[in-house]
Amino acid sequence: MDHFNITGGELHAEEVPLSRIAAEVGTPVYVYSTATLQRHARVFKEAVAQAGRTRVAFAIKANPNLGVLRLLANEGLGADVVSGGELKRALAAGMKAEDIVFSGVGKTRAELALGLDEGIGQFNLELEEEGVVLAALAAERGKRAPAVLRVNPDVDAGTHAKISTGKAENKFGLPIDQARAIFDRLAPLPGLDLRGVALHIGSQLKDLAPLEAAFDRVGLLIRELRAAGHKVTHVDLGGGLGVSYREGETPPSPAEYGAMVARATKDWDVELMFEPGRVIAANAGVLVTEVLWVKPGVTHPWVIVDAAMNDLARVAIYDAWHDVAAVRPSGETFTANVAGPVCESSDVFAKARVMDKVAQGDLIVLRSAGAYGATMASTYNSRALVPEVLVSGDRYAIVASRIAAETIMDAEQVPDWLK
Ligand code: LLP
C-alpha cells in the first residue's frame, strides 16, 4: 500500500500534487512519501516480531538519503551498511552505532577500523582472513568486535541473476560446510566476539521457499556449532523480500514472511536481525518526469521524457518493470515506448506499454522508484544528479538538491601541461 493517489484528477504524494513539486523543484525529481515509509517500517517490524527477539536494520543501499534515514531511525530501525560512506550516513542521520550492522564482501582495513572506533553493533564477516584482521584491529584498541560469519547456503533464490547472492558460485559468504572449521579458528581470538551467523540469498524474492530452505540449513549449522561448544546468540537473516512492481505480482507479504521465519527459527533461541531494503522503500517513491517529445516510431510512438537511465538505472541493468502513469490522466490510453535522452539503446523505461495517453509537456511518473533509484543515479552524458523530495501530509522538503553539470565539472581540472 502506498500514499500516491489521484485526487481531483491529479496524482498526489499524500496531500501534495506532484505538479506542484515539478513546477517548484523541476524535473526529473524523486518524490518519497513519509506515511508510506512509516507504514512499511511498522508493518515489517510487527511482522517479524512474531519470531521473538528481533531487530531490524534498514539496508541503506536501497535509499541512503539522510532525510529518509532519519525518518526510519525515528521508527526504531537501525542500518545495514556496506561501506564507510554508508556508515557515516547512518550516524549522520542519527542512528545509534550499536544499531548498525556492517555487511559487504570487500571491507577495507580503514572501514573495519572506523566501525570499531564508532562502536558499531555487528560486523558480518565474509571470509576467515577478514576475521583475523578485525580481531587484530580490535585487540590494538583494547576491544572485542561483535561479529557473525556470513554463510552461503547454496540455494537458488529464483530472482534475477544480477541480484542473486546465495548460490555457491556467487562471491558472497563462506561455504556453509566450512563454517564450523572457521568458527573453530576464529572464536578463540581475543579481539573477536564471534556470536553467530548471517545470510542473505538475494533480492526481490517472490517466493518464500528458497528462504526457508536456506534458514533450515542455518538451523542445522547452529546445532552443529553449539555441539562443538560454540556460542550462537545472534543470527542475521538478511533482506530480500520482494515487492509488487506491477499489477498481478503477488510477492509474499511481510506477515507471511514473519510467520515463515517464526516457524523456521522456533528452536533457535537467538536474537534475529533483519536487513530489509526494497520492501521498506520501493513503493514509497516515484520518479516524476516531463514528456519532452512524442516522436513517431515504427510500431509505437516514443515518449521521450527528461529522466533517463542515469537517473533510474534499474530498467537498463535488470530489465526491471516500473509502472508508468500520467500525473493528470485524461482517461485515454495508447501503446507507446517510454525512453530517456541518453545516447544508449538501453535508455528505455518501457516498451510497447499500454499507458495513459500523454503529450508534450505532460508529467508522468515511474512508480516503485523509492529503492535502488536515486542512489544508483550517475551523471552519464553530463547530466545533473537528480534531486529528491520528501512529502509529509501537505508539506514537502527537498532532501537532496539537484547537482548541476557545472558543479560536477568543478571537481575536474585540465593538467598544466595541456594548458
Ligand atoms: N542485506 C544484504 C547483505 C544485501 O546485499 C542486500 C541487497 C540487502 C540486505 C537488502 O536487500 P533487499 O531487502 O533490498 O532486497 N540494485 C538491485 C538490488 C541489489 C540488492 C543488493 N543487496 C535492484 O535495483 O534491484
Automatic annotation (TrEMBL):
Cofactor(s) required, per the database record: pyridoxal 5'-phosphate
EC annotation from Swiss-Prot or TrEMBL: 4.1.1.20
Transmembrane annotation, as ranges: none
Enzyme class: lyase
Pathway field: Amino-acid biosynthesis; L-lysine biosynthesis via DAP pathway; L-lysine from DL-2,6-diaminopimelate: step 1/1
Residues binding pyridoxal 5'-phosphate, per UniProt: 240, 275-278, 372
Domain Orn/DAP/Arg decarboxylase 2 C-terminal: residue ranges: 30-370
PTM sites of type N6-(pyridoxal phosphate)lysine: 61
Classification via InterPro entries: Ala_racemase/Decarboxylase_C, DAP_deCOOHase_LysA, De-COase2_C, De-COase2_CS, De-COase2_N, De-COase2_pyr-phos_BS, Orn/DAP/Arg_de-COase, PLP-binding_barrel
A molecular function (GO) term: diaminopimelate decarboxylase activity
Amino acids binding substrate: 278, 314, 318, 344, 372
Quaternary assembly: Homodimer.
Record's function text: Specifically catalyzes the decarboxylation of meso-diaminopimelate (meso-DAP) to L-lysine.
Record protein name field: Diaminopimelate decarboxylase
